[in-house]
């Protein structure tokens, strides 16, 4: 069941895939158009909505046709314009206008000019031929056609039905009107009518088409189907005269007439929808929409003596056995609305309202009355209305949460959700209340805290929830309400109706001021200075104040237009799985803050940000306060739940319900045992009333028909499998981690996914790698991705890699590659290169590496981006993905890319104003530094001293500062290079350099001294000293930006260094040679020679450098492992000019100089 269009479906067409998709399948695509002009694109494999254009057609579409090998769709109907849309994006690429009336069209191959042309046919049957440019998608009318024929006489009431071209006979078309079917040939600029078939006087034509090799069929409204043999011209030999008419023209011979058995089988509402050729045998498709049940039939047209078709109908109920949703006590559901993060309000036809936890509603919706008395957090408002509850809305006022309900009795009632009590009632409407509207105006004290109710007679009332009073009522109008404009400063409310009238009401006196029509009304309502509510849906769905909804619910309604009634026959719960998981972690962290012992919570991936355009559903950052659900706390049984853990328990209850409805049992015992033990699930529980679906573009839904065997859901499509596995994996990882078993989570999830194919069988659809790549930053999705790859054969992997390689940005064939496909291909192959590089050949690794670098540096893939706009969301997502994949698989990609330039690009992003971009770049740089620190620090120090632009030098110093603050251990081996580079940026001999670099250099030096105990600065002497791993110490004069003294003598790395208060001495210490050495910091002649001769920091003969003034030896009771552990455990403290103390962990040693 495909759900999304808001008005009746008017046209359909199927586009067969020209090539295999990303998941190595070749599924067709269904394109649908509704009467409001909306055009949608759906997958025929699982029904997923792939795209929507809400304004694809201006008018009522009547015909959809794919052309140019399925690349484009032409839409025509009740409009003078024809729209050409891209079949993949549904973007309008051409508006083909200039027609005199409503128009339809088809393409044909003209044998005279030897190219494809188009013919249009208006509803008054005027024919025109058009030239078509397939490159520019332009149409030009053939002006050489003179006096085109009329297929309908001017005095006739006949109207065009449709036009169709023959795929076998070039230039042959059929134009069908209510009264006649005309087959004609188009050659060059000539129309040649060949065959005309008139309908019987007692009926009209309903449809027709070319079928098979040489036949066509026409069917009538009375159920008769006429099958004709189409006889093409036999041709005339050169130099001969035609002897028979069929040698020049097409002719038709009636072969069979079929009709349905009206007495026994055919319903008056039965309609023939299609007749198609199936291996030279005709098959008819019919549909019947009756009040009691809807049926369809697919019947072969077998020829018997009577040529009577005995229709074998199949009810939609047979395919979709909808169970009785009527509650035995409350009746049918008539209205639903979420009232908090964990609760749902349900209105019934009996007038009862139940507010129940979502977990209970999900599993027990058909029989809530049987179990709600045994549950906590339930509120029941029995007989709230005299008749059905028609609409509800949640409103918060004075720290109280209220539920407003409207009923068929015309009353509006208010209920306190916290204590479950009735508050007040307003009988303000004579007919049923159909919707509530929350005013967008919230500044005026008179409007703030109010709710608008609208009734079936279009009467309106303004109810103040703050004062519990009805402020005023506005009588109805003959046309539906379209908008409400709030001009509170002018003391007016303007009601706009669908007949383009506007009623201006005065707020203070509640009286009608004036009525405006036409342009005046439009100008008033279009005034953007005033807030306005546009009335689109029956009820304005507003999230409860302070709550982010984890789940929404919508009812699928069957409308009887004749009886003006509607029936809710199915209810769809849409869960935000990531938000559910996030809330569980947030509750968990809240318990930890209260002092309750909890295991560590796994953190989000760096790139899982709101800028991931490929993954639109994003959770809020961890640490964001999660508001408690007040309905959870109100009815807690004090003896059943301790107060601190109740919030976590409620979150687990909802997750348990979703998991219980999603998981397939008897697949992996270890995984199922873990889930059932934590969530107290009963294995092998069957929920026959629950089925699964997918949420697609524009929020449109695809719901699977209920299946007797739940394993069948794993055989639908690769996207369905991946979506369901992702939901199970995310939920399972959260609950397993909550119980402190996070180390087992990935293995359990991988074991479950790898066991599924054997349990389901040969028809199992492996998870979509394309979909999993969207969520590749998530560890669960990454684990599923690896498991899916592991389940492929060698030949399947080769085919998979070859397919995606074709879509890389570096590929030679980029005819139809969009940014999304290029990014997806790069990510898929990038993941494989990071996790299993042996699966990629050197050539593919090279192209993947170059593609990653291309996505990193190219921010202009989006056609809509200009130099004056910020980076698009999609561009940011691609850049984040490329940075993370480049850093994770740097050892794989390094040999194929210019690593230094890639790093420089990341340096640029590391200081980006977008927090997500800078965070992603910094983490990528850190990851690369863990793999190849010499490359990173070498690039940073070189650019800091040699870059042509000072802002590039400043950028490098800032990134060095980030390293010092966040990853100080990574720099331990290269501190002397960093200090050397920073000092060089302060060279006073380079004009303006020192002034520009001084603030940033000062900040970096301050961080160095604060972080590393072997770096010190003397403010009085303006000297900087640094110790090295080689045992040398270097003193720099910052006034001249030169190296002044090199101190060599230690046989191990320097662990601590400090100037004396007067900067006369420098104390150094090494834990490897267990000595403390005190040096003169002043420059000696020998020091000058050493400074001028020495270009490196390698050790020399003892006589080549300044010797220590004093040397002290010491011994430690225990060894300290390496330099990484010494940053916070060692340091000098000069207590006077002649005394220095060395602190090593909790040991203090004092030395007199």
Compact description:
With 1153 residues, the protein is α+β, with helices and mostly antiparallel strands. The chain is built from 24 helices and 58 strands.
Describe this structure in words.
The protein is of the alpha+beta class and 1153 residues long. It is 25% helix and 31% strand. The chain has 24 helices and 58 strands. It has a 5-stranded mixed β-sheet, with no helix packed on it. Strands 42-41-40-39-43 form a 5-stranded antiparallel β-sheet, covered by helices on one side. Strand 44 (551-560) and strand 45 form a beta hairpin. The longest helix is centred in the middle third of the chain and has 21 residues, at 718-738. It is globular and about 125 Å long. It starts with a strand and ends with a strand. Mean pLDDT is 82; it is low at 537-546, 595-626, 634-644, 862-869 and 1086-1104.
Number of strands: 58
Helical amount = 25-40%
**Average predicted confidence as pLDDT:** 82
Which geometry do the CA atoms define? Answer: globular
Radius of gyration: 38 Å
Uncertain regions: pLDDT < 50 for 5+ in a row?
537-546, 595-626, 634-644, 862-869, 1086-1104
Biggest sheet record: 5 strands, mixed
Distance linking N and C termini: 88 Å
Query: Count of helical segments?
Result: 24
What class do helices, strands and sheet pairing give?
Answer: alpha+beta
